[in-house]
Structure formats: structure tokens, C-alpha cells
Write a structure and sequence with these properties.
The complex is a heterodimer. Chain A is mostly helical. Chain A contains six helices and three strands. In chain A, 61% of the residues lie in helices and 12% in strands. Chain A has a three-stranded antiparallel sheet, with helices on one face. The longest helix of chain A has 24 residues, at 25-48. Chain B is mainly alpha-helical. Chain B has four helices and no strands. Chain B has helices at 2-29, 33-59, 63-92, 104-109. Chain B is elongated. The longest helix of chain B has 30 residues, at 63-92. Chain B has one domain. In chain B, helix 1 (2-29) packs antiparallel against helix 2 and helix 2 (33-59) packs antiparallel against helix 3 (63-92). Classes of the chains: A mainly alpha, B mainly alpha. Chain A binds chain B through residues 17-18, 20, 69, 72-73, 76, 79-80, 82-84, 86, 91-97, 112-114, 116-120, 122-125, 132, 134, 136, 138, and chain B through 19, 22-23, 25-26, 29-31, 34-35, 37-39, 41-42, 44-46, 49, 63, 66-67, 70, 76-77, 79-81, 83-84, 87-88, 91, 97-100, 103, 106-107, 110.
Chain lengths: 161, 110
């Protein structure tokens, strides 16, 4: 139930921010209709794939995003070096299957997405508790294997367990 | 103050454009499909962030800023999904990735 309240509030805020017309009754009523429609679909999906626990994930996100942004910047510099100075910094493409400690679907998706978001590593496949990673550089896959990102996503995931 | 904001915004925009061009050049320089995906990753992540950061500084505290930040958020959420789908499709259809020589064993064991 709390999930629906949050969703209504969030969708209404999102609609108001996107439209920018806050005093036109016709447009506002269209907004109400679209929010209700979205709530209906979300409720139907919720029955099949429960998602309501994900709300407690939100407070942990800003810190995780800041750390992820730092990682993205570092990884970008690594790839940039390979683009502009291919002689000094050669490529070493690597495929490796790494274990992942997340238990929920959301946690696994977050981890695989975080791997793909950092340039230089892409998650190719997720099977059970393993993720197959394709890395542009051997070092970046080694870094991933040390497991700091895995630990951070697991810490984030603890909020919804 | 105005000048400072314009200056920082200009730096961010130039940096974003540079990253975008780097991504495009990497797309041509890298040897095969899989490595090229990583070059495209530069354009997806930091290039978008820099350009949108520069535009946010130009827009100030308005609804446009909110929309720009939403664009960044959605790009960062959707581009990994697209990248994963592309590379998984390539792998499933049997395109062999170019690997470094000592890692052939590693892939077979996995």
C-alpha cells in the first residue's frame, strides 16, 4: 500500500515537472488520467513481480551513485588513453566469469548494469550467481574481480532483503 | 559570478565534445565489434554527463534543469541495457571476440 502512495506521489511530481503547465485545468486532468493509467499497469505488474521493497533502496542510492560516477570517470580515462595512444597502451581484451554475491533479481541487475555502465567492462551474461564479463583491459577485469563493486552493490541490496 | 559560471560551462561543453569525438575515433580505431562497444561507452557516459552538466549551468534554476537531469538519469539507466543486449546478441550468434593470446584457455574453462 505504501508503494502505491509513493508511486502516486512520484508520478504526479514527475508529470508536473515534465509538463511545466501547472494552472491549465485541461492539461492537469490529462495528467491525472495518465497517472491513474500508470498506477493501474504498475499494480498489475506488481502482482506478478513484487517490486514494493525497492523503495527502501532509495536512501542508499546517492552515495552509490557518487562512487559509481568516480569509477566511470576513472574508467573513461583508461579507455581514452587506449583511443589516443594505442602504441603506448595496448588493448588486452579478456572474457572471465566472476561470482556475484547478490541474491535478488534487483541486486543482480544493479550489479550487471553497473559493470556495463563503466566503459571498459561489459556484462555479457548473467546465469545463477555468475556474471560473464567482457573487458577491454585485463586490469579492469582484475579490478572487478577484487570485488569492491560487488561489495557495494550487496551493501545496497541489504536494504531490501 | 556570471562570467565564472559561463567559463565552467564552456569548459564542460568543450570537454564533452572532445569526449564525443574521442568515442567516434575509437569506434574506427578499435579492431573488432566487441572492443568498439567500449569506445561507444565513452560517448554514452562521461560525454553525456559533461554536455548536460554544461547545459545545466547555462539554464540555472529552472524546469529545464530538472528535465536535463532526467535526461542524464535515463541515459545512464538505459544505455547499459542496450549495450548488454547488443553484446549478448553478438555472442549468442557466434561472433568470436578478439582476445589477448594468453586468455584463450580462460575462456574455454569458463
Amino acid at each position: 500500500m505504501l508503494y502505491l502512495v509513493f508511486l502516486t506521489f512520484g508520478l504526479a511530481t514527475f508529470w508536473l515537472l515534465m509538463s511545466g503547465f501547472w494552472d491549465n485545468p485541461l492539461l492537469l486532468s490529462f495528467g491525472v488520467i495518465s497517472v491513474l493509467l500508470c498506477l493501474f499497469f504498475a499494480w498489475k505488474i506488481e502482482k506478478k513481480y513484487p517490486f514494493h521493497k525497492a523503495i527502501s533502496l532509495l536512501p542508499g542510492l546517492p552515495l552509490f551513485w557518487m562512487w559509481l560516477f568516480k569509477e566511470v570517470v576513472v574508467a573513461n580515462i583508461d579507455v581514452l588513453k587506449r583511443i589516443w595512444l594505442p602504441e603506448e597502451f595496448p588493448l588486452s581484451p579478456t572474457i572471465r566469469t566472476l561470482p556475484m554475491s547478490q541474491k535478488t533479481r534487483l541486486g543482480k541487475t544493479t550489479y550487471a548494469n553497473a559493470i556495463t555502465l563503466t566503459p571498459g567492462t561489459i556484462s555479457m551474461d548473467v546465469k545463477g550467481n555468475e556474471v560473464t564479463v567482457y573487458g577491454l583491459l585485463k586490469e579492469s577485469v582484475d579490478d572487478l574481480e577484487k570485488g569492491e563493486m560487488d561489495k557495494r552493490v550487496s551493501k545496497l541490496e541489504k536494504r531490501i532483503l | 559570478m556570471e562570467i565564472l559560471i559561463n567559463f565552467i560551462s564552456a569548459i564542460l561543453l568543450v570537454l564533452g565534445v572532445f569526449l564525443g569525438i574521442s568515442g567516434a575515433i575509437g569506434l574506427f580505431r578499435f579492431p573488432d565489434f566487441y572492443t568498439r562497444m567500449h569506445a561507444a561507452g565513452v560517448t554514452d557516459t562521461l560525454c553525456t554527463a559533461c554536455i548536460i552538466g554544461g547545459l545545466v549551468l547555462q539554464a540555472g534554476f529552472t524546469l529545464i534543469t530538472v528535465k536535463l537531469i532526467f535526461i542524464l538519469l535515463f541515459t545512464w539507466y538505459s544505455s547499459p541495457a542496450a549495450g548488454h543486449a547488443l553484446i549478448k546478441a553478438a555472442h549468442k550468434t557466434g561472433l568470436r571476440p578478439l582476445l589477448r593470446k594468453d586468455s584463450e584457455q580462460e575462456e574455454k574453462s569458463s
